[in-house]
Structure formats: structure tokens, C-alpha cells
């Protein structure tokens, strides 16, 4: 189960990294776009009389339209950044952190298993040694003393084996519960991605709706004698 989670963790980490880049880029675009939209349209001038040019259209309205304000234009930036951070980046980061925690615990489980296997081999080896000694009892009276010592050693090894089995069983059970919970909660990444798409779409739509759809500026009569700066 952890191997399957590892595949998801790898691609989710890449997505999280890219999403942070998009977060920075989009908030920057929304801010700079708002600054542009808040900038006044340039004036329109008539110089056909061959005299000092006079402004025939005075356009004080901003690029974004007469009702556009910088404050309103930049509000979407804060909303987007906050929603991406809380509704997408944090849930994904939390799940990835849980995966790495499970990965660290898996190393402990693997170590416990290696210790268990080593303990089993020692017990098996000691049993073989005892059987060999048992075969020498008839021909070697001293073998009985050696066998008693070997049986005592076997008892100690058997105790260590039981301890290793219990340790591995407990660690494995806890890890199974940990990984099961991790994999079950992986579905939440789907919601996080939907939240990112919805937040991005909402922010861009809100920013778009603030910009006027008029294709011509609202003209207003210029004061008489108004000239072009620098003329």
C-alpha cells in the first residue's frame, strides 16, 4: 500500500511545487493588471489647425473603465492567494508530510523484520548445534555438559525471538493502520485540486468583471485652449 502512496506523493509534490509558482505568478498578474487598469487613458488631441494642439477629448477614466478602482482590482489577488494556501496547498502538504512520516515508520518496521529474521536464524542454528551434540552423547560423556550449556543458550535465544516477534507484530499493525488512513485520505487531494481550479477561475472571473466592456472611452469636453504637454 505504501508503494502506491509513494507514486501519488511523488506527483503531488511536483504539483504542489508548480502550484506555488502559479500562485505567485497569478497574484503578480492580477496585481500588475490592476495597476494597468487603474492607469488613466491617454488624452486625444486635434492638431489639424496647425496651431498649438487642443485636447478635444479629455479622458480621465482609467483603462479598466470609469468605475474601476485599484483597490477593487487587487482584492482578487488576496482572495486567490488565501484560498490556494488554505484550501489546496495546505491539504496537499499535510498529506505529503503524512506519507513521509509513514515512510520513516516503514523503515522501523523493516528493521524490526530483519531483526526477527536474524533471531530466527540464530534459534535454528542453535537447534542444529544441539542436535549435533545430542548425537555425540553415546560416544562422548562430556557432550552432556556441553549440551546443557547449549540448551541454556537456546532458551535465551528463544526469549529474544519472542521479543522480536512481538515488536515486529506491534510495529506492523500500527503501520498498517497508519498507511490505511493515509491511503483513505488521498481522495482529499481531489477536493484540493478542485478548490485550486475553482479559486483560480473565480479570481480571474472577478477581475474580468471589474474591467469595462466598452470599446470607446467616455468623451468629455476639454477646457478651451488645453494644449499638449511639451508643445
TrEMBL record:
Highest taxon of the lineage: Eukaryota
InterPro entries with a match to the protein in the record: AH/BAR_dom_sf
Region: Disordered, residue numbers: 122-149, 208-231
Biased composition (Basic and acidic residues): 122-134
Protein name: TBC1 domain family member 2A
Organism per entry: Chlorella sorokiniana (Freshwater green alga)
Lineage of source species: Eukaryota, Viridiplantae, Chlorophyta, core chlorophytes, Trebouxiophyceae
Amino acid at each position: 500500500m505504501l508503494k502506491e502512496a509513494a507514486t501519488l506523493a511523488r506527483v503531488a509534490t511536483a504539483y504542489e511545487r508548480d502550484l506555488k509558482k502559479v500562485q505567485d505568478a497569478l497574484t503578480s498578474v492580477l496585481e500588475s493588471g490592476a495597476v494597468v487598469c487603474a492607469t488613466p487613458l491617454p488624452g486625444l488631441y486635434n492638431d489639424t489647425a496647425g496651431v498649438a494642439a487642443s485636447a478635444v477629448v479629455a479622458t480621465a477614466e482609467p483603462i479598466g473603465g470609469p468605475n474601476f478602482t485599484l483597490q477593487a482590482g487587487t482584492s482578487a489577488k488576496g482572495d486567490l492567494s488565501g484560498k490556494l494556501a488554505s484550501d489546496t496547498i495546505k491539504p496537499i502538504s499535510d498529506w505529503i508530510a503524512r506519507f513521509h512520516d509513514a515512510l520513516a515508520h516503514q523503515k522501523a518496521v523493516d528493521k524490526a523484520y530483519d531483526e526477527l529474521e536474524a533471531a530466527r536464524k540464530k534459534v535454528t542454528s542453535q537447534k542444529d548445534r544441539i542436535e549435533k551434540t545430542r548425537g555425540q552423547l553415546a560416544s562422548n560423556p562430556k557432550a552432556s555438559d556441553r549440551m546443557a550449556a547449549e540448551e541454556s543458550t537456546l532458551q535465551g535465544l528463544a526469549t529474544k525471538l519472542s521479543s522480536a516477534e512481538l515488536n515486529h507484530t506491534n510495529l506492523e499493525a500500527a503501520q498498517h493502520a497508519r498507511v490505511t488512513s493515509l491511503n483513505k485520505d488521498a481522495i482529499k487531494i481531489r477536493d484540493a485540486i478542485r478548490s485550486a481550479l475553482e479559486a483560480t477561475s473565480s479570481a480571474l472571473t472577478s477581475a474580468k468583471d471589474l474591467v469595462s466592456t466598452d470599446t470607446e472611452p467616455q468623451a468629455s469636453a476639454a477646457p478651451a485652449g488645453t494644449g499638449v504637454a511639451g508643445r
